[in-house]
Amino acid sequence: MLTVESWGFDFDDRTPIFRQIVLRFRRAFVRGESPPGGRIPSIREMSALLKVNTNTCQRAYQEMERDGLIYSKRGTGYFFTEDDTMLNQTRRELALESLRRFVEEMRALGCGDEDIVTELTAYMKGDEQHDADS
Amino acid sequence: MLTVESWGFDFDDRTPIFRQIVLRFRRAFVRGESPPGGRIPSIREMSALLKVNTNTCQRAYQEMERDGLIYSKRGTGYFFTEDDTMLNQTRRELALESLRRFVEEMRALGCGDEDIVTELTAYMKGDEQHDADS
Amino acid sequence: MLTVESWGFDFDDRTPIFRQIVLRFRRAFVRGESPPGGRIPSIREMSALLKVNTNTCQRAYQEMERDGLIYSKRGTGYFFTEDDTMLNQTRRELALESLRRFVEEMRALGCGDEDIVTELTAYMKGDEQHDADS
Amino acid sequence: MLTVESWGFDFDDRTPIFRQIVLRFRRAFVRGESPPGGRIPSIREMSALLKVNTNTCQRAYQEMERDGLIYSKRGTGYFFTEDDTMLNQTRRELALESLRRFVEEMRALGCGDEDIVTELTAYMKGDEQHDADS
DNA sequence: GTGGTCTAGACCACA
DNA sequence: GTGGTCTAGACCACT
To answer: Quick one: which H or E segment has residue B80?
Structure first.
């Protein structure tokens, strides 16, 4: 449903705002919170909702367009891509890349495969509580 | 053995170079590639090897000294700490950083926590075989 | 036959939609896909078929009428011109446009004029064989 | 040699200035007018030379970085990519794409293969004179 | 000094 | 109304 209103940005975070916007959209998109092919708020609307400059928003949208996540019709608006094979493929690639690097790093630290799983489950458990706090 | 020559830095990455250097050192440290208490190249040598500004190198060393990873003997040079509790702590920090990013990325892709574990085990299984092949 | 249904527009392209429509019409015209003097769909029909705003379609038709490619009979509809000098002229313009862009692109790649011819003949030769295969 | 001073921009042209900059660079790069790995003027210098805003210049540089033509070192500057295999590959791909489209368009207009070559040479001849005028 | 990000505000052509 | 481009000017962290 794309409940944008609650997207606050962390200005202390080193990651640029426009990238934070992209991340938010990616999550929403990949979780199916938004209908494929559906319209997304115009740059002006979005920048008003998020209380950021239109240019910042614009750049986020362009970034997403480059990645094939959304597309623009000039004078009409931005839309989520309809091609969900592309979506799944993208998701798959991103997941594999994350997995690859993660396993590589953990192994480099001397973790056996079971250790990695143990660490992971332990971490996610703790992280959950942390999330609940905030 | 600290084979520094092959340390290429990722200038695309948003993390500062000096921090990338620190990470490299920590990785080398926890992997046992460097003898505890061993000497590390001087700032001048290092900056020449890494083809990096001496200031950048300087800052990396400072950071590591602050963290207790290395220590300096005035007029003599920098040395790895001999304290192995330090080593474990470093390893812990690196693991947490990997975990944090991994979980964040996978969740951003819409994976639930159980999915993440499933994916991980599946990946490590496949990766094993793949490794055996090559 | 003017099989309009398959006309997808390239919203990535910087050329306006109305101009893309014109181009499609011209192409169909010089290819003989439409009988000279034949009727073309009304603006309303067309905009519905192309899933485009009626204003956009309107402007495309105006442009074509101005160029003499089509003409309108009040209260009756739009028709292709019967004048075949027009057809040749259109063909000429399209060819020039293709040539202009092609040469510009190849030169931007550092190709000298002879290189361009060489590349072209080589390509057409290879393309022929490739076509024969499939 | 990258003689930038004479790069005037056509503000009437519909193609954005930042893209015009990219095109200029591409041409210079692919023609070997710039040493691979060489430094290119900083954004501030460049924007002063070209008399455009730093942001415009920035965007041009980023676009080129995305395409792998140049890379940036934060706090240091922009440099041409050193990997010339990548360069050649890019050039090849671009050339093939241009060829493919051109031949397709000309054939669609009813040109035989010899006609295409004839048209091309005729066009380039005329274009040369036109260039000499300006 | 450098690149990178952001803002406020303007203008344009397109739908 | 929309997206797209550009400007002027600011701030930041890194080299």
So the answer is: strand B77-80
C-alpha to C-alpha distance for A46 and A57, rounded to whole angstroms: 7
A51/D66 Cα distance (integer angstroms):
28
- Chain C residue nearest residue D90, CA to CA: C109
Nearest residue: Cα versus C1' of E4: D74
Q: Do A120 and B119 touch (CB under 8 A)?
A: no
Q: Does C123 contact D30 at a Cβ distance shorter than 8 Å?
A: no
Number of domains in chain B: 2
- Partner chains of A (3+ C-beta pairs under 8 Å): B, C
Pick the more confident residue, A31 or C20: C20
| Alpha carbons B49 and A126: distance in angstroms, whole number | 41
Question: Mean pLDDT, chain A, as a whole number?
Answer: 86
Calpha distance A45→B130 (Å, rounded): 49
Compute the distance between CA of residue D52 and CA of residue B114 in angstroms, rounded to an integer.
53
Higher pLDDT, D9 or A116: A116
Shared domain check, A58 and A109: no
The lowest-confidence range among A118-122, C31-35, C88-92 is C31-35
What are the tens digits of pLDDT across the range D70-120? 999 888 999 998 887 877 887 888 899 899 999 988 988 888 899 999 999
Q: Are residues A14 and A48 in the same domain?
A: yes
- What residues in chain C have their Cβ under 8 A from chain D's Cβ atoms? 14, 27, 30-31, 91, 94-96, 98-103, 105-111, 113, 116-117, 119-121, 123-124, 127-128
Q: Do C91 and D103 touch (CB under 8 A)?
A: no
| Statement to judge: residues A72 and A93 lie in one domain | no
The domain spanning residue A28 has which CATH number? 1.10.10.10
Q: How far is A91 from chain B (nearest CA, A)?
A: 6
- Taking 80 as the threshold, does the pLDDT of residue C70 lie above it? yes
